[in-house]
Amino acid sequence: MNAVFSGSFDPITSGHMDVLTRASRIFDHVTVTVMHNARKQGKHLFPLDERLEIIRQATAHFGNVSVDSFGGLLVDYMARQGQSVIVRGLRAVSDYEYELQIAHLNRQIGDAETVFIMAATRWSFVSSSMVKEIASYGGDISEMVPRASAEALRRKYADVYAERAQSQQNQPSPGQGGPGKS
């Protein structure tokens, strides 16, 4: 049995990778599908082609995972691909309430079943928007995203990371004294 794991993945996080890893053990094949919503054009940090490339790099080690994109209704994409199972990751109860509504709608309009996989506790606080926020200030996001996402974020915010590195080099080391120390 095959499944579709859909989302905007802007960028893909370690939580997404956790869910995908476990889904790849359950299903024969998992297609990671990146949503392309024309109404959200320009609202993503990474354009569609870059998100697809980041995900391809992050998932290259999987033998049963492919990457694709779609626009429109997920159930229409699934029907064209002959798929009937959607994988969705959950972090918290608040995710469940939203995802439950979507799962019911997808079953109603497209006869698609949704399988929920709980993200590991260590990723329950990680979201793409939080990662982008931290990266926009030059923070360390290396544990929160796969290497391909971290590299893409560092390129996107290269000036911020360079500025932060420079300011940290200018800080006195502990025990070296600093302002007000003799």
UniProtKB/TrEMBL annotation:
<keyword id="KW-0067">ATP-binding</keyword>
<keyword id="KW-0460">Magnesium</keyword>
<dbReference type="GO" id="GO:0004595">
    <property type="term" value="F:pantetheine-phosphate adenylyltransferase activity"/>
</dbReference>
<dbReference type="GO" id="GO:0015937">
    <property type="term" value="P:coenzyme A biosynthetic process"/>
</dbReference>
<protein>
    <recommendedName>
        <fullName>Phosphopantetheine adenylyltransferase</fullName>
        <ecNumber>2.7.7.3</ecNumber>
    </recommendedName>
</protein>
<feature type="binding site">
    <location>
        <position position="88"/>
    </location>
    <ligand>
        <name>substrate</name>
    </ligand>
</feature>
<feature type="binding site">
    <location>
        <begin position="8"/>
        <end position="9"/>
    </location>
    <ligand>
        <name>ATP</name>
    </ligand>
</feature>
<comment type="pathway">
    <text>Cofactor biosynthesis; coenzyme A biosynthesis; CoA from (R)-pantothenate: step 4/5.</text>
</comment>
<feature type="binding site">
    <location>
        <position position="8"/>
    </location>
    <ligand>
        <name>substrate</name>
    </ligand>
</feature>
<feature type="binding site">
    <location>
        <position position="16"/>
    </location>
    <ligand>
        <name>ATP</name>
    </ligand>
</feature>
<feature type="binding site">
    <location>
        <position position="74"/>
    </location>
    <ligand>
        <name>substrate</name>
    </ligand>
</feature>
<keyword id="KW-0548">Nucleotidyltransferase</keyword>
<feature type="site" description="Transition state stabilizer">
    <location>
        <position position="16"/>
    </location>
</feature>
<feature type="domain" description="Cytidyltransferase-like">
    <location>
        <begin position="4"/>
        <end position="133"/>
    </location>
</feature>
<dbReference type="InterPro" id="IPR004821">
    <property type="entry name" value="Cyt_trans-like"/>
</dbReference>
<dbReference type="GO" id="GO:0005524">
    <property type="term" value="F:ATP binding"/>
</dbReference>
<dbReference type="InterPro" id="IPR001980">
    <property type="entry name" value="PPAT"/>
</dbReference>
<feature type="binding site">
    <location>
        <begin position="123"/>
        <end position="129"/>
    </location>
    <ligand>
        <name>ATP</name>
    </ligand>
</feature>
<feature type="region of interest" description="Disordered">
    <location>
        <begin position="161"/>
        <end position="182"/>
    </location>
</feature>
<feature type="binding site">
    <location>
        <position position="99"/>
    </location>
    <ligand>
        <name>ATP</name>
    </ligand>
</feature>
<dbReference type="Pfam" id="PF01467">
    <property type="entry name" value="CTP_transf_like"/>
</dbReference>
<keyword id="KW-0547">Nucleotide-binding</keyword>
<dbReference type="InterPro" id="IPR014729">
    <property type="entry name" value="Rossmann-like_a/b/a_fold"/>
</dbReference>
<comment type="function">
    <text>Reversibly transfers an adenylyl group from ATP to 4'-phosphopantetheine, yielding dephospho-CoA (dPCoA) and pyrophosphate.</text>
</comment>
<feature type="binding site">
    <location>
        <position position="40"/>
    </location>
    <ligand>
        <name>substrate</name>
    </ligand>
</feature>
<dbReference type="GO" id="GO:0005737">
    <property type="term" value="C:cytoplasm"/>
</dbReference>
<keyword id="KW-0173">Coenzyme A biosynthesis</keyword>
<keyword id="KW-0808">Transferase</keyword>
<comment type="subunit">
    <text>Homohexamer.</text>
</comment>
<comment type="similarity">
    <text>Belongs to the bacterial CoaD family.</text>
</comment>
<feature type="binding site">
    <location>
        <begin position="89"/>
        <end position="91"/>
    </location>
    <ligand>
        <name>ATP</name>
    </ligand>
</feature>
<keyword id="KW-0963">Cytoplasm</keyword>
